[in-house]
Fold this sequence. Notes:
The complex is a heterodimer.
Chain A: H1 4-21, H2 27-44, H3 51-63, H4 67-79, H5 88-104
Helix pairs in contact in A: 3-5
Chain B: H1 11-19, H2 23-45, H3 48-64, H4 75-93, H5 96-108, H6 117-134, H7 138-148, H8 154-161, H9 165-187, H10 196-199
Amino acid sequence: MARVGDVLDNVIRTSLREPIGRHEPSAAVREALMARAANAAQSVAGDSVPPLVDELREEAGAEALSWWEIERCRQESYASWSNPRLALGWLDTFREAKRCRLNVA
Amino acid sequence: MINRMVSVPTDSELVQRVCDGDLSALGTLYDRYRLLVFHTALAITRDRQSAEDILQECFLKLHTYARRIDLSLPLEPWLYRVTVNLAYTWMSRRSRWLTSIENMLDRLVAPARTHTEYHAEMSELQAVIQQAIDSLPPNQRLTVILYYLNDLSLKEIAYVLDCPVGTVKSRLHYGREYLKKRLEVYHAPTLKPVTQSSRS
Lengths: 105, 200
């Protein structure tokens, strides 16, 4: 015969695990993590222009877009993400992009 | 016996690769432990977005502090420790009024009962336990979650929470007693021992 304590433990364990186990993090988390880690790695390496910033600069040159226009496009692209807070990493990139632009100018 | 042609890199090998600047190793570690971190954070915060934020921050810390990780020790306890610290910060920042509003909203938007009586009862029971765990003091709550959700031993919990094993035992005891009382109020028959004969 099972002890009352064991039953209680099982009830708590099952009740905690079942609802939690059904959830998975969204793919955007991994994407944002890798982007932020890549940015951080570039900064540590002393490269003041991360790859994403390079990309923005190229885009600006080729399309003759203003930085604000590029930023707006980027913001629209991540506005559809399920978690807007994940966009903080991107915002860092934009700030860096603007800083680089000032340096170039 | 199956001969494995491709060797799976160990955690310490992957952490070493992260130290060497290999971002794909960070991705592999993320894929390996994302559910462990996410589920723990979700159990503590009960908020999907916060749990995802904690998940991201946890692996960002792994990337930032990889050089400080002792490669001779298992990685899991380190991840638990970071997750719990991040979740603890989240709990501390959460103000009282916000908690009451969220609890009220949780009750209002709680999942509807499922069709069968069994599932309806289980869902309600789960909700009762969740609410009881939510109302535990933070230290007891973390201990209960690490013990029941993550199956950590008392010694492992003591490492994660950075406190003596005796303190973990005490927190678990009081947390468990509180949950028992709440469950007894809810439905005493639930806690009756189940025997093989009574199942059939």
